[in-house]
């Protein structure tokens, strides 16, 4: 595992995350009552101090009532303002030393404010879901909210027994006592805070395909009345899984789940080992199949291979966009070349002031970033040829599995697979703003 931990605060969200320490494991015990939308929780956080002694540290947590805070069993001094729980241990933690934080909190969860509206915990008509990208995780649990700080998780969630709980990871136990049920999930793979997914609702569970020995179990959790349409819309997901494992390398987690909510969602949302779709993404006509491919591809690119900070988000979205094109090409739809040409035409009609390598916070989720990111991958494919290109893709996923990456790491990685220099190509596509020529245009003209 290659981890490139960012040295300082995230330039886009300096109030989120604390680079002075890193978390090894979160153990979260939650009790949620959907009717009054009431959440109470206990977090046990195992962490390691950085290179300097830790006289204080910060966890991100929204406006809850704090019941108790302990550091290595001792009561620290703490303040809780503006979504930041600032903790001063009774005795500074030595540089490089492990320490444990325990936090008890309770209140009515709600999304945290962001430039894109509310993020994180969202109360549904009958249940709740979590969609945290990029800064919504503190809406429901205390965390070091930076994508580079990846940890393992155990989630224990108690709810009324009428509700199912779906989280990313492996379901360890489900225990019913009187009118409540406790669900315990384990996510052993390193996970960024924003990628911890959770859904609470009334769903039917189906198995997608037959994983066979050594295969990846894939489950769908769907409202009963959408089951028929879902069965058609997600029927080819097992084929996507096989194809992506061929092209990208082994699936990086134990299982994969998809949830369809009763409500509509603007866009699907990826979490580690889990993707959330709205009822509007199910139409019985595979109308959102490209999004099924996009979210699945994020399990490799974005979730297993994560970004060191939010400047590099194109490494998540560009790769997932290109996975859409690869699936279309393999499944009898338009080829990647045709889809690249359509993306290039679209971008040529739009302002050319977006720099992939540092789009700025306002443009993190700009459609142009997705399309241009896909075109970068297509340009690299045209330059390297298919054999070297797919070796490069598999190598990227293998080398950085469970770790974090930067744009500079990607450009260096591509160079190792190219017989010819690719510096100018990557400089123009990733660091420039003007739209370069359509990838492969010169080769077609010569032909």
Overall description:
This protein is α+β, with helices and mostly antiparallel strands and 447 residues long. The chain has three domains: 1-198, Sandwich (Immunoglobulin-like); 203-300, Zincin-like (2-Layer Sandwich); 306-431, Neutral Protease, domain 2, CATH 1.10.390.10. The chain has ten helices and 21 strands. The protein has helices at residues 227-233, 237-248, 289-297, 314-330, 336-348, 367-384, 386-399, 407-415, 423-431, 441-446; strands at 21-33, 38-49, 57-60, 65-71, 77-81, 84-88, 98-107, 120-124, 127-131, 151-160, 164-167, 170-177, 180-191, 198-201, 204-207, 218-222, 256-260, 269-271, 274-277, 306-307, 404-405. Helix 2 (237-248) crosses helix 3, helix 4 (314-330) crosses helix 6 (367-384) and helix 5 (336-348) crosses helix 6. It is globular, with a radius of gyration of 22 Å.
Rounded mean pLDDT is 95
Q: Please provide the count of β strands.
A: 21
CATH superfamily of the largest domain: tricorn interacting facor f3 domain
CATH T-level fold name of the largest domain: Immunoglobulin-like
Gross CATH architecture of the largest domain: Sandwich
Q: Give the number of domains.
A: 3
* Shape estimate: globular
Strand order of the largest sheet: 4-7-2-1-10-13-12
Helix content: 25-40%
Q: Which ranges are low-confidence, i.e. pLDDT below 50, for 5 or more consecutive residues?
A: 1-6, 442-447
Radius of gyration: 22 Å
**Sheet with most strands:** 7 strands, mixed
Q: What's the tally of helices?
A: 10
Q: Tell me the fraction of residues in β-strands, as a range.
A: 25-35%
Distance between the termini: 43 Å
Structural class: alpha+beta
Which oligomerization state do the chains in this entry correspond to?
A: single chain
CATH class descriptor of the largest domain: Mainly Beta
